[in-house]
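This protein record is not my work; I was only asked to verify it. Where you disagree with what is written, explain briefly why. This is what I was given:
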Amino acid sequence: MSVGLRALNRLASSDLVDRLGLREPAARFLHGASKTTSRTAATAGRTFAAAHARARPARQRPTRHDGLFDLTPTDEQRMLRDAVRDFAADRLRQAAQRADGTLATPRDVHAQANELGLTIVGVPEELGGAVEQRSAVTSVLMSEALAHGDMGIAVACLA
């Protein structure tokens, strides 16, 4: 940030700006950019206000245990696994060769993974998360289903 401010100060004190008649357009541009930056910061602040307003941090409820060790997926886990499996088969497998060629996960795949909610599975529902209970089984089922599409892209989507 200090580098940017130094550059702006140097530009503002330059005679070249006046000679080229760029002082007024530059001032209008900087004014608009600062307004946009302020609006963006205010929007981001409102988005996370719910988290800051809490006296105690929000947490996902732990899974209920009835005393038996059972790895049978719940209905919610099955639905999530099926949705992620379909996403992996339809999107990740198609993007795998392109990702290998460019050595990067395609942006559209990241965007689709975010739309599906893969990155917010560990976030409590009251803060916009995807599942109401925290469960290692849910995370494993989701990771396994993604890996069937492409392991490298799966890791990138979960990061």
The helical segments are 2-12, 15-19, 23-47, 49-53, 75-102, 107-116, 136-147, 151-158. The mean pLDDT is 81. The chain has two domains: 2-53, 73-158. The first strand starts at residue 61 and ends at 62.
